[in-house]
Amino acid sequence: MSGPDFAHLIRLSDDTGLYEHAEGPSPRREHGYCLDDVARGLVVLSREPQLSTELADLADNYLAFIAYAQTEDGRFHNRLGPGRTWQDEPGLGDWWGRALWGLGTAAARCSLPWIREAALECFDRSAHHRPPSVRTMAFAALGAAEVLTADPVHASAAALLGDIPSHVGKPRPDANWPWPENRLFYANAVLPEALIAAGDLLADDKVRDDGLRLLDWLLTVESFDLHLSPVPTGGWFLGEPRPAFDQQPIEVAAMADACARAYRITADPAWLAGVHRCIAWFNGDNDLGSLMHDEQTGGGYDGLTPTGPNINQGAESTLALISTTQHLRTLLRSTG
User: Fold this and answer.
1) Mutual orientation of helices 53-69 and 35-47 as an angle, nearest 10°?
2) Pure H helices in 222-268
3) Using one digit for the tens of pLDDT, what is the confidence trace for 218-254?
4) Do 136 and 184 have their domain in common?
5) Number of domains within the chain
């Protein structure tokens, strides 16, 4: 695996958005689109230093989808049917958090200035909400961190990021289970990453160090013999069997993002090793020794089951693959 391959993302996309599901590499058009995936698509495109004409068109389409999903009061629809009609009411679920993550990343990083401007306008329309879900807030906090990195005096981004420590909570005093929840669920590393970002950008060393402590513990419990062994879809608590399945690429991508941020802030090579462990998971250094991407299509496999990969190549898994491989740049810079 070299750098990110966008071929399958292009295959899953059309002039409306990004198809959620695939059968093998073929889009399941009958299942329609979801904002969750389109927002993640905007994140990875905005991280690219330069966009080809084809990828620039994708970024335009993804931003237009997010803007279409947004209501005047800053909530979002999530699911758009194949007939281009919304299949849900607007709300503040995880898709709201991921939308702000995508918008914040585009506003701060996208190489196309008109996308930066439009994305920031959409971000500002939604940033006043405070949903109760900790992961929803953590996704949004990552978008706020991007905005604040580009504009350190941006008020609504600072307010949103400043509220994340109270949503995540403090590490527990139990060294065996410092995690602030009673169970590990999904995309777990987004919680410590949000704390690390908040502590760094808002100059709160205690919050930053709480995030680093939680991430260190999470990387330890999600590893076995120096390879990544993510918690399964049903979650995990102490004493439950491991390895466990199905393992989801989103868990690996969240860990890669968090370790990359921790490395940028601390320059501790242990975090660089964590990034490498995540990339290696996709390349077969996992509990079954299975390659987790299709080398011909560029698609990511939908999960690691007890008998091997789920070879469907949907949007979430493909974006997790792209997001993780984008961190190869971090590895190359550190060794260059």
Assistant:
1) 140
2) 249-266
3) 999 999 999 999 999 999 999 999 999 999 999 999 9
4) no
5) 2
